[in-house]
Design brief:
homodimer, mainly alpha, sodium (chains A, B), sodium:proton antiporter activity (chains A, B), ion transport (chains A, B)
Chain lengths: 623, 623
């Protein structure tokens, strides 16, 4: 008996050691399945269910299996340990450890136990993430990769429109969703489904802001694969990436908006405080991200002999940008986004060729894994999350609100933008943009952050359903929709030279000039030496700051001002053929010769020399 | 007031969101510092403090800072929340969330609170890992990388000696440490420092087994950098890698050894059960790891078009080997080690060139990060772990025991081995092996697994001190010791042709023949087609299983039997110059031309064609 007891206690301990392994194994298994499916789809050029949709589907099935397979053993696994045993320390191992990393869920469970006496399912709890893992570990690589692979040229050419969609559009979307939802909430209160005091207008706006974050993953991957028109691609990419940042900060600002008295009335002071918060956080995060990137650029100057150290430093400093912003109460995602953009612009040029490859592949890989984990997890959450509240009216309202808001965002704004744009955004482009308003990881992540109260749980359930619906239906419908709207594909054999000139060029002409003359020489090995660009009295400082290799380029770069003002902002088919974002499989054989640089980050790294020489004739012919 | 309260609650929540960020930031900061230090050391060829030692030192300093900097705010941060608040759910956020991923510590804290009413330091708790993160996430890449980069040729040539050191040596070491410690424990009981019933002989053996795991990181990195004699390198590498596996299984077997009555007496049944456990677990883990690798090899056949998918699958399946073994109650580390070896042998050959690069660099990078995190963390643990028990007598005893046990392991076994070896292990090699018995991550990880009882805490503290001492003193002293012992360095300009012939060749000749004829053709694209190696009546099956590309090699490979039996087991300087293990920085410039393949996994992938052609003349001249 003694022995048996000892053995059992050893088994307990054993259980303890192996805990965590099972859950990770489930995720590994889902990811392996997803990869095999992607391979199958790629091989058969099947595009009606995108890999993200596939990942989500597998997650869903797995969630269903876990829920039903573990229900039988519910009573054993959920045994409530007496407080007595707590003191002995050892026997409590099991119950505590099963919750392992899932403290959040654990805490919820505790309060649940206390309040409702409800007993949860251990396996299901295990499969529920701590949102901080989501935010601190899974999201940064995705966002960083988005920023890092941003196609600067096209992005800046359409920057005016992108900013309009991202800032104004998101605000419009947030308010419209909030208003419509508020209407439905009023109706629900009228029907007695909800208490008046449970759901304020700020809650509706909160829901509106989190549902305004569109997903940059699914549609863009398809666009990229099909080589959809570059302008449309850039508009959508820029919008969905920046819009995430805006939505996150907006959600945060709304969550700390607190009118003094009646929460349903408008409080100007609190409102302006929220607006101030919004601007402050956005600017602060931007500054944080950029400064980390600049530090990386400066440090990477030194390390160029050791690719592994370079890559390590690059990775750690970029992640630190995120973590520092979070620790400082700013928004890490905004910081890491701009950190990515700045790293791509400066640091990337300082890396050794080997390092460039390593860094690029590392981030691609992390992005790939993180994305698939998130989508698997979203599928899982539908069944494993314990406190879903399905309210048909609210769900219906949310669906209506999301689509109406998207329409009120795209069509009026495009109309206004078209007044100023030389190259109008075509009707079919507008429909495609309307159609591409998928909701994805960010909306889900924002919703899962707070699932304390019943209204928040209802919001989470609804958000999850909208994500599932849009990813499957809209994601799957992208290819047919493109055909139906007759949106041209950029073919390698038919380079369309007749694309637009710089749209909002004057501001960026100034910025490019400054960047090229002063920042690039200081932060990278590229660009003209500072001795030529700074006034003469600055020469001692200039000499100190200029990299020796910059002098080598001096002779070639005499006409740089001309180049940056004209060439950087002018379309050049050579580079537009390689929309570099999200080559999710690193495929080199599948799409033919024009894709040799597919998967390249397109940041001028490898192609720097190539482009440089390519520019020479053009420059001369223009001179 | 209302507003303030709301604001405060928002702040609380805010705190919650940003929790986890600070701790991760601390680690990021330490790693960045470490990388910069490595760079500095590399640049100045400074070898007295190895990077692992540096990482540990930074961790130590950081631990000190955290301990003293946070002491002042101890009272606020450690507020004990009343049970009342637990029900409201929200206010408990802070206390719960600060422990986040560190459930284990949290539990300990709870029991501590209950038993001693002692109040911990919140920041310090935060910096204490959950051991399951250590085991499930940080160790697998290191061990996998070790297995993956194992130099097969040299390894198999010395396999007899390596197995003797790893199995017999570890057992000897474990018993000797156990006996010496038992002596000291008796003395401590006599002096009244310890109660008789607190420390059994099995506990001493437990300590012996965990202290028998030698560290493969520090010394080998230096050896590799200096190009120390290949035989010595292989012996030490093989010993320290396999010895980890043995020590882990041994520790586990001892922890479940349970004699029926008096725990100090010898119980034959329980003993044999433990031996059975040991063998069963070892064999099971081996089988688990190998079968995952075989599955990967078979799947990777299909995916060769998509490097990213290949790499992803490779990564996930290898990790799954670890997790499955853990979930099945086996030892993940043993599984992942053999998975690495098998992956390197079969799967690696199936990968596309791009994938080979990606996979190699990915594992190098993960290995690099994980190693440095572990060493930083070991430094941190000295100050942040809350329940250290420093017992000078026990510590002294442990130091004596560790050195005596190392001596009893190396010298007698080498004497016995030298009786059978054609190429004797020289005296200075023996001293070097004695000196290289560092204790590292595995010993630490095994010790931190269980710190429940006071004896276990004492063991943990002592193990940590031994790790710190050996890594700093022995790790730092490696270079002077090599000079002092006059151990020759393999110089590129002076290829030593007079190395040994196969030592335990007959067994491996059979294995190699079988592997080359049957397994390689089935599992990889390499090797002769099965149609030539299988008996004629198997032809239909053989045709089905043979990869089409294998036929291409058929003409060239007519003499393969001869090659494998002779060439594979014969030393060839070409390949021995590139000891491929642990190129921790991916440096390509630092060590000169002979290192072009440094960092290559050396698994015949890139060099397959090269070697193949190199073998042809040799083969012909022998024919």
């Amino acid at each position: 008996m003694e022995k048996l007891k000892k053995y059992v206690s050893a088994r307990d301990e054993d259980q303890f050691y192996h805990q965590g392994a099972v859950e990770l194994l489930v995720f590994n298994f889902l990811l392996i399945l997803t990869i095999l499916t992607i391979w199958l789809f790629k091989n058969h050029r099947f595009r009606f269910l995108h890999e993200t949709g596939g990942a989500m589907l597998y997650g869903l099935v797995m969630g269903l299996i876990i829920q039903y397979a573990t229900k039988a053993s519910d009573v054993e696994s959920g045994t409530v340990y007496e407080c007595e045993k707590l003191k002995s320390g050892r026997s409590t191992l099991l119950i505590n450890i099963t919750n392992q990393v899932y403290e959040y869920q654990y805490r919820r469970e505790i309060s649940h136990h206390n309040v409702n006496g409800h007993q949860g399912n251990a396996m299901l709890q295990k499969m529920t993430f701590d949102p901080s893992i989501f935010f601190n570990i899974l999201l940064p690589p995705i966002i960083f990769h988005a920023g890092y692979s941003l196609k600067k040229r096209h992005f800046f050419r359409n920057l005016g429109s992108i900013l309009t969609y991202a800032f104004l559009g998101t605000a419009i979307s947030c308010i419209i969703i909030g208003l419509i939802i508020y209407g439905f909430v009023k109706a629900m209160v009228h029907l007695g489904q909800l208490k008046e005091w449970e759901f304020h207008f700020t809650d509706c706006l909160f829901f509106g802001s989190l549902m305004s974050a569109t997903d940059p993953v699914t549609v863009l991957a398809i666009f990229h694969e099909l080589h959809v028109d570059t302008d449309l691609y850039t508009l959508l990419f820029g919008e969905s990436v920046l819009n995430d940042a805006v939505a996150i900060v907006l959600t945060y600002s709304i969550s700390i908006y607190s009118p003094k008295e009646n929460p349903n009335t408008f409080d100007a002071a609190a409102f302006f405080q929220s607006v101030g918060n919004f601007l402050g956080i956005f600017a602060g995060s931007f500054a944080m991200g950029s400064s980390y990137a600049i530090v990386t650029a400066l440090i990477s100057f030194m390390l160029c002999e050791f690719p592994m150290l370079e890559t390590g430093l690059f990775f750690l400093l970029s992640w630190s940008a995120f973590l520092s912003a979070e620790a400082a109460g700013l928004t890490g995602i905004v910081a890491v986004l701009f950190c990515g953009v700045t790293q791509a612009h400066y640091t990337y040029n300082n890396l050794s060729p080997d390092s460039k490859m390593r860094t690029k592949q590392l981030f691609e890989f992390m992005n790939f894994l993180a994305e698939n984990v998130i989508f698997c997890y979203m599928g899982l959450a539908l069944f494993t999350f314990q406190n879903h509240i399905f309210n048909p009216l609210f769900i219906f309202g949310a669906f209506v609100a999301v689509f109406v808001a998207r329409a009120c965002n795209i069509y009026p704004l495009t109309f206004l933008l078209n007044l100023g744009r030389k190259q109008k955004i075509a009707r079919n482009f507008q429909h495609m943009m309307m159609f591409s308003g998928l909701r994805g990881a960010i909306a889900f992540a924002l919703a899962i952050r707070d699932t304390e109260s019943q209204p928040k749980q209802m919001m989470f359930t609804t958000a999850l359903l909208i994500v599932l619906f849009t990813v499957w239906v809209f994601g799957g419908g992208t290819t047919p929709m493109l055909t139906w709207l007759q949106i041209r594909l950029v073919l390698a054999s038919n380079p369309d030279k007749n694309t637009t000139k710089a749209e909002s060029a004057w501001l960026f002409r100034i910025w490019y000039g400054f960047d090229h003359k002063y920042l690039k020489p200081i932060l990278t090995h590229a660009g003209p030496p500072l001795t030529t660009t700074l006034p003469e009295w600055c020469n001692p400082v200039a000499r100190l700051l200029t990299s020796p290799s910059a002098y080598g380029d001096q002779r070639k770069d005499d006409d740089t001002d001309y180049i940056i003002n004209n060439d950087e902002l002018t379309e050049n088919y050579e580079s537009s053929a390689h929309i570099p974002v999200r080559d999710r499989t690193g495929s080199t054989q599948a799409t033919g010769k024009e894709d040799i640089h597919e998967g390249d980050l397109g940041l001028g790294g490898y192609k720097l020399q190539l482009e440089h020489t390519a520019h020479q004739p053009q420059m001369n012919s223009l001179a």
